Each structure stands twice: as structure tokens, then as C-alpha cells.
């Protein structure tokens, strides 16, 4: 029964998502690799700041390179999170526009809060 179903499908059905998913798959992998490097930098930096207090942490964030790397870490993290949430929503609720919108809004709020915190610390 399964064999007859598979034989009846045309080659167009099989190649429907041939190029669609490849870009998303690569983006997920590249953001993962970037996050490994950036998370290592963040952990190393946090270890170096341990026990130095609020002023040292604020001075760390005020350095342009550190602020830029923190912002990049948050941007890539939120992008990676958005791709993962979208993939899960599409897997389990393929026709739910409301869940896609909620996940996009969640990621947008998360990004604005993170970048806003960096901006406020940089300006302080």
C-alpha cells in the first residue's frame, strides 16, 4: 500500500522543498557555530569580571568592542531562537499564523530589551 502511494506521487511533489529548507538549515548551523564562539567569549569575560563589582562590569560594557560583541551575541541568539521557534510552530501547528506572530513578537521584545540594556549601560 505504501509503495503504491509512493509510486503515484510525481517528482514535483518530492522536490517541493528542495531549495526552501537548505538556507534555513545552513542559517541554523552558522548561528550555532557563531554562538559557540560568542558564548565562549562571554563566559571568559564573565569569569574575568567575577568579584570586581558593578563598576567594573559597567566599564566592561562601555568599551565599544565589548558592547559590540554583546550586541552581536544577543542579535544572533534571538535570531537563532526565532528560527527554532518558527520551525517548531511549523512542525506542530503548520496553519497557525497567530503562533507565528506571537513567536516573532516574543523575539522582537527580547531583542529590544537586550539591546536597550546595552545602550543604557553604554550611555551611563
From TrEMBL:
Its main location: membrane. Its cofactor is heme. It is a multi-pass membrane protein. The keyword Mitochondrion does not apply. InterPro entries: SQR/QFR_C/D (IPR034804), Succ_DH_anchor (IPR014312), SuccDH_FuR_B_TM-su (IPR000701). Pfam families: Sdh_cyt. It comes from the Bacteria. Keywords: Electron transport, Heme, Iron, Membrane, Metal-binding, Transmembrane, Transmembrane helix, Transport, Tricarboxylic acid cycle. It is found in: Membrane. Signal peptide: none annotated. The chain crosses the membrane at residues 30-50, 57-81, 101-122. Pathway: Carbohydrate metabolism; tricarboxylic acid cycle. Membrane-anchoring subunit of succinate dehydrogenase (SDH). Part of an enzyme complex containing four subunits: a flavoprotein, an iron-sulfur protein, plus two membrane-anchoring proteins, SdhC and SdhD. This is Succinate dehydrogenase hydrophobic membrane anchor subunit. It comes from Asticcacaulis aquaticus.
Amino acid at each position: 500500500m505504501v509503495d503504491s502511494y509512493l509510486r503515484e506521487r510525481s517528482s514535483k511533489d518530492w522536490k517541493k522543498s528542495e531549495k526552501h529548507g537548505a538556507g534555513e538549515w545552513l542559517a541554523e548551523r552558522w548561528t550555532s557555530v557563531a554562538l559557540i564562539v560568542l558564548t565562549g567569549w562571554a563566559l571568559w569575560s564573565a569569569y574575568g569580571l567575577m568579584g570586581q563589582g558593578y563598576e567594573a562590569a559597567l566599564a566592561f560594557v562601555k568599551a565599544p568592542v565589548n558592547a559590540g560583541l554583546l550586541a552581536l551575541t544577543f542579535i544572533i541568539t534571538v535570531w537563532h531562537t526565532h528560527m527554532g521557534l518558527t520551525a517548531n510552530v511549523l512542525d506542530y501547528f503548520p496553519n497557525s499564523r497567530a503562533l507565528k506572530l506571537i513567536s516573532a513578537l516574543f523575539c522582537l521584545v527580547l531583542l529590544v530589551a537586550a539591546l536597550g540594556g546595552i545602550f543604557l549601560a553604554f550611555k551611563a
